Amino acid sequence: MRSHYCGQLEKSLVDQQVTLCGWVNKRRDLGGLIFIDMRDRTGLVQVVFDPDQAALFETANKLRQEFCVRLKGTVRARPESQVNANMATGAVEVMADELEILSRSEPLPIDFNQHVSEEARLRFRYLDLRRPNMNHNLQFRARVTSAVRRFMDDAGFLDIETPMLTRATPEGARDYLVPSRTHKGKFFALPQSPQLFKQLLMMSGFDRYYQIVKCFRDEDLRADRQPEFTQIDIETSFMTADQVMAVTEQMVRKLFNELLEVDLGDFPQMSWHEAMRRFGSDKPDLRNPLELVDVADLLKDVEFKVFAGPANDPKGRVAALKVPGKAGDISRKNIDEYTNFVGIYGAKGLAWLKVNDLAAGRDGIQSPVLKFIPDDALQGILERTEAADGDIIFFGADNATVVAEAMGALRLKVGEEHGFVSDEWRPLWVVDFPMFEEHDGELHAIHHPFTAPVGVTPEELKANPAETLSNAYDMVLNGVEVGGGSVRIHDNAMQQAVFEILGIEKEEAQEKFGFLLEALKYGTPPHAGLAFGLDRLVMLMVGASSIREVIAFPKTTTAACVLTDAPGLANPDALQELGVAVKVAEEANDND
Amino acid sequence: MRSHYCGQLEKSLVDQQVTLCGWVNKRRDLGGLIFIDMRDRTGLVQVVFDPDQAALFETANKLRQEFCVRLKGTVRARPESQVNANMATGAVEVMADELEILSRSEPLPIDFNQHVSEEARLRFRYLDLRRPNMNHNLQFRARVTSAVRRFMDDAGFLDIETPMLTRATPEGARDYLVPSRTHKGKFFALPQSPQLFKQLLMMSGFDRYYQIVKCFRDEDLRADRQPEFTQIDIETSFMTADQVMAVTEQMVRKLFNELLEVDLGDFPQMSWHEAMRRFGSDKPDLRNPLELVDVADLLKDVEFKVFAGPANDPKGRVAALKVPGKAGDISRKNIDEYTNFVGIYGAKGLAWLKVNDLAAGRDGIQSPVLKFIPDDALQGILERTEAADGDIIFFGADNATVVAEAMGALRLKVGEEHGFVSDEWRPLWVVDFPMFEEHDGELHAIHHPFTAPVGVTPEELKANPAETLSNAYDMVLNGVEVGGGSVRIHDNAMQQAVFEILGIEKEEAQEKFGFLLEALKYGTPPHAGLAFGLDRLVMLMVGASSIREVIAFPKTTTAACVLTDAPGLANPDALQELGVAVKVAEEANDND
C-alpha cells in the first residue's frame, strides 16, 4: 500500500512520486494551503495540499489529528529558508496528489505529545505508544533482542523453550499460582526463572542454551519491578566462570557497539568484598568517584562509644566518606536531611567533619564530634582520606551491613546531587561472592541454592559455610545489576550439602528437588550460566527512568492492567470447574 | 574446555590433537583395547584406549555408560576395512592421550537408545533428550525459530512482547486463571493468543509486528495439543490479505529451502467451499488423490430414502468416494470396519458399490443398495466418478456437515491404508471462509470475532450473516493447518455488528472488549495478520508423530509434568494470601 516510510524521505527522492501510509500528527492552515505533519513508525514528513486541486483540497480539509490516511504525492525540496533542521526529513516536503482517509479519529482522550498522568498513559496505552520516544523505545528493544539472538545463534547457543506451567519453587520471591482443571485442588506455578530446566537441558547434552523468556514474581512492586519481566537466559556446559563471563561480556559489548556506537572496553573485575568496602554496594556505580574509607583501626581506642563500639566489634564497621570541595556547599540543613536519609537504612546518626584549614590543625576542623577524636586519630583520618581544605567527611559507624547500606546510599545521593557522576558507561564484574549471608541467625543463599562453591568439598563447605566463596558473578553497569550467574553444582553430594546448610530437610529437598537430585546421578556435565534482565538493560540503553518505558503493556505498581481492566472477576462456573473458591472479606474487594 | 565437537571430526583432522567433552555412549573391550563411542550434541566418534598407557588405561577401565568425560587425543584414519559407513565420523577415530572423568553415572533407569514407555520418557526427560533424534528435533526447532526471526527482522517486523498476565476472553477454549494477590478475589488469565494486543500494537503504529510466543488453552488434550503451545504471531498494517499471504508464504518457503532443501513452489489457493466439496475438510491433504464427488442431483428421485432424503434437503448432501482398483482388496470385514469408523462422525451407515465388470452393466456391479439405484442414476454415478473395473465407491448421505466429516475422514483413512498418499510436500491456502457457522441454531465465528467480512457494510452483514464470506486465510500443509489469519475489523460499527450477530449484548461487549471498541475510534489503520502453530510446523518438518517430540518438557495428556510432579499442592498460607480456597471432594484428589 505504501512505497516509502515517511522518515525515509530525503533530497535524493526529489521529484519522485511516493505513496505514504500513516497518521496526521498535526495540521496547520497557512497562506491558503493545508500543511500536515504525517507520521509513521519511522518519523514525520510535511505534506502540502494546494487549493488548486479542489477535490483533493476538500478531502484534506476534513483531516483532523490522528486520522489514518494514505496519500500519493511528489517529493520536493523545501526552499533554503523553510528547511526545518529539527526534523529528520526537514529538507523536503511532499506535494499531495491523492488522499484517502482510511480511518477517522475522534478527539483524543489524551494528547500523547504532552505530559499526561501515568494512569492515563497506561489506560490509553495504544495512544501513548504513538508517542515518538515510546515508539522508539520499543523499536530499540526489538533491535536489542534481534542482536542478542544473532550473537547467541552465531556462538552456537540453542534457543530452547522451557515450560511456563511449572512446579512451585521456594526461590525467594513469591510464585504466581495457576489452578489445574484436570488435577483439581492442585496448582502450577509460573516460573520465577527457568533455572532448573536450563540445568536439566545441560544434563541432556544441549551444551549451550539461551532463551529470551518471561519470568514472574508476585511481590510488592518497586519502580523498576514488574510482575512479569523478561530474562535473557543462558546456560553452558564445559565452560568455566571466566569463559561464561567472556562470552556474555562480548555480547553486551557488541550490543553497545552496534546499537549505540559505544565501546565499553574490557570489563574490570572486582571482588564482592572490595565492592562492599569501597562502595558499600554489591553493584557499585563507578561513574561516581566517591569512595568509602575504612577507619575503624584508627578509632579503636577513642572514648566515644559511637565510634569505639563498632570499631572493636568484629561485625562492626566505621567508614568515612569524603566529599571533596563541598564543605561550603553542604549546609547544616543539608546534613540534617542526609542524617534522616541514612536513617532509612538503619543508621542511628551521621557524624561529619569539615576541613576548613588543614594548616590550622584542630582549629581548622569543624565537627560536632571533634572533641571525641584525639589528635592521632584525626591525623590518621585526614591522611587516609587524603583530605584537603574545603572537603567534608561523613562517618558511618554501626554493624557492617548498616554501614554499607547507609553510606553506600549516601555516596550515591551526594554524588548525584553534587555533580560527581560522570556521563559515561562504567561496566564491571563483581565476583567472589560469599556463598551465604546471615539474616536473623539463619544462612541464606546469596545467589540461589544451585550455585557452586569455590574449592571446597561438601564436608569442608559444611564445616565453614559462612567463609566459603561462591563461583558466582554479577554484571553491573552504571550501578545497575544487569545480569548475574554462576557455576552450578553438578554433584549430588554437594547439592545435598547446600540444602542441608540452608536448613532444607532431606525429605523436603526430595519433595521439592527430587528430580534434580536424581538427575545429578547420571553423568551431569560441569555447567554454568547467567541471566540478564532484558527490561533493565534496554532501560539503561535508551536512558529511560523506568522499565515501564520499555515494555509495551506494563502493569501498574499494584500489578494491574488499567487498559484491559485485568485482573477481573472470574466466571463462577469456571472456578467451580477448577475446584477453587474465592474467600475474601467484602471490604477487600471494595479496596481495589 | 574442548577444541572440537565429536561430530566435527573427519579426515582433514588426521594427526591433529583434539580435546573433546561429552558422554560415553557405549563401551566395548576388544583385543585388549578399550573402545568407546563418545557422544555430544553433534554426534558420535570412536575413541580408542591402548593398554600401553597404563594410567590412562586404568582410568578408561572405569568408564561406564553415560559417564561424562573430557579427553585429549589424536585423530587418526581408520583402516579401510574398519570404516563405519553408518557413522558420520566413521572414517576416523581418536587415539586417547588423556582422560578426565568429569562426572560418573549410576546405571540408567531408562535405556534411551531403546524403546521405553511414554511415561518413563517424560519422567526421565533429561535422559530421553539425550536420545539422538530428540536432540536433533530440538536443535532443528532452534534452527527454525532462528530462521523465522531472521526472515521477520529482515522484512521489517518488530519483535514486541505482549503480556502473559491478561484479562480472560471468551475466545472459544478455556482460560488458565491466575489469582491476583494485590487484588484479592480477582484473576488474570493466561493468553490463548496475543490477538487483541497485537491489534492494539497496530493502532499504536508499529506497522509490522511478530512474536514467537507461548499461548495457553486449558482444554482436554488430544495427541497434538498441549496446554501451553507456541505461536509465530504476526500482524501488519496497511497490507491486504494477499500481501500477508505472500510474505508468510515466502517465509515458509524459505524455511523449507534453508532447512530441508525443499522447494515448496507457489502455494495454490482453494476456497473453503471447494475444499469441503472435494475433500470434506477445511484442511485437505493434497497428497491424497482421492476426492468426494457430489451425486445428490442424480439421486433426488430415487425411492431409497437414505439417498433421496439428503438429496432433496437444502442442508443435505450425498457424496461418492471412489477408491480406484481396490474393490478386490477391501473385504466385507473392511467395509464393516469403515462403517463403524464413519459412525464416529455421526454417519448412520456406509453404502458402497464395487465395479466388477463395467461392460456387464448392472450385473457387473456389486452393492447391497444396487436395487435402490435406478439405471440412469447408476449410469450417472459411474460416469461422474469415472469408475473403472476394480474400483469401489463409498457413499455418504446425510446433512452436509456429517457427510463432509465422515467421508473426509474415510478419505484419509482409506488413502493411508491403501497407499494412495504420496511422499511429497503439498501446501495450499484455504480462503473465502464463511464468516459464521451454525451450531444448535446459533451463529459462531469460524475464525474469531475480530475477522473482517468481505465487501459488506455493517448493515448488509447483519441482514445476511450466514452468506457473508470472511477475509480469512489458512495455510495448510499435508492436511495440517499450520497457520491461520485474517484481515481484522478496523471499524467500530462493523465490530459492534459482529458482536451483535454473535449474540454478545452491547453491555457484555463493552465489559469484555470496551478497550478495543474505544481504541477503534482513534484512527485505527487497516490491519491483518496470521499466526502459525510452531509446534506443529516443526513436527511436520522433522517428520515426528506428535508435538511432544519437538517440545523439551511437554505435559502428559492429563496436563501434568511427571518429571517435576506438577501441578502440586499449594502452600495453604499462599492460598490464604491469594484469597482463594480449594474446594474439592476428597475422592477427587485421590484420583490424581
UniProtKB/TrEMBL annotation, chains A, B:
A cellular-component GO term for this protein: cytoplasm
Q: Which domain of life is it from?
A: Bacteria
GO molecular function terms attached to this record:
aspartate-tRNA ligase activity; ATP binding; nucleic acid binding
Record region (Aspartate): 195-198
Keyword annotations for this protein?
Answer: Aminoacyl-tRNA synthetase, ATP-binding, Cytoplasm, Ligase, Nucleotide-binding, Protein biosynthesis
Kindly give the Pfam families that the UniProt entry links to this protein.
Answer: GAD (PF02938), tRNA-synt_2 (PF00152), tRNA_anti-codon (PF01336)
EC assignment: 6.1.1.12
- InterPro entries in the cross-refs: Aa-tRNA-synt_II (IPR004364), aa-tRNA-synth_II (IPR006195), aa-tRNA-synth_II/BPL/LPL (IPR045864), Asp-tRNA-ligase_1 (IPR004524), Asp-tRNA-ligase_1_N (IPR047089), Asp/Asn-tRNA-synth_IIb (IPR002312), AspRS_core (IPR047090), GAD-like_sf (IPR004115)
User: According to the UniProt record, what class of enzyme is this?
Assistant: ligase
Please tell me where ATP binds in this chain.
R217, D218, E219, Q226, E481, G533, L534, D535, R536
Please describe what this protein does: Catalyzes the attachment of L-aspartate to tRNA(Asp) in a two-step reaction: L-aspartate is first activated by ATP to form Asp-AMP and then transferred to the acceptor end of tRNA(Asp).
Q: Which NCBIfam families match?
A: aspS_bact, PRK00476.1
- Its name, as the record gives it, is Aspartate--tRNA ligase
What is the organism lineage in this UniProt record? Bacteria, Pseudomonadati, Pseudomonadota, Gammaproteobacteria, Alteromonadales
